[in-house]
Amino acid sequence: MTSASAPGKIILFGEHAVVYGQPALAVPVTQVQAHVQADLAADSETDQRMGDGWADSVRIVAPDIGLDSSLGRLLAERTTHPLAAVMMGTLQALGLSALPPLTARITSSIPVASGLGSGAAVSVALIRALADMLGKPLSDEQVSAIAFEVEKLHHGTPSGIDNTVVTYARPVYFVKGQPIEIFRVGAPFTVVIGDTGIAASTRESVGDVRKLWEADKPKMERLFAAIGSIVRTARQAIEGGHPEWLGPLMDENHALLREMSVSSPELDRLTDAARRSGALGAKLSGGGRGGNMIALVRQDQVRSVTYALMEAGAKRTIVTEIS
Ligand code: MEV
Question: Which atom of ligand 1 lies closest to the CA of 160?
Fold first, then answer.
């Protein structure tokens, strides 16, 4: 038996603009995790069904999404199932043509379609569990590259930030197509995450932003550039140990995301409630339209902001310290 876990993530600054080459800042959220346990079938040594039907002896159980299927069945579906893509991508990276009979059990406390990187975390945990089980661990770079290919199935044109931060599980300053930079946190700070409880498709919000960009490139590129400059300022504030400067930057970033049509009444209600209850700043985080928002708070505000978010309709909150 081998197992692997991967954390969720939040984007502190820069979502959407990052798809167009601007930088973004993201951090792991270890309070929520995807977990995969891979068990070789007891008879695997004598019954190596490595012929054409090998995929029928690979079972994937994911109770959170009501899935209990063989890999063979998933591969026969008309559109590629992301979990099948993870397994096939891992095999390819390992230079193998088949998996031995096994069961992969997938559980996750990361809410699906909520901007917390649940798809990327499941991919990363599954890749690592399989590679370890086969005695061929992969580098972080390889793991992230496989997960990126699967992100394309989830999101269409992802920047790669989700698979990167979830794989490395460190604070990341990310620019699409460039080597990752881990950023330093000069002084720890606290963020309250508020979940609207509304599942929202990142593929759809990213696609809508693309339509707006196609309709008016100069305008959208001005918005992206404004977000890029917020991200660079935020990185300096974080590295310089001035997290209190991040509040107004979050508010500004949220306003720009609203202009890009990716907020929602629920996200606006939660960000307003956070600010009214004393948070230093607040913004949506991730693809938007639903999912999660984040609020920057001082330690002594955690309770009041959490309470205000629940009163304003949050389905749950997570308090995370970034250090
Ligand atoms: C999703 O977590 C972040 C987006 O910027 C999409 C992406 O970067 O792939 C909305």
Answer: 9
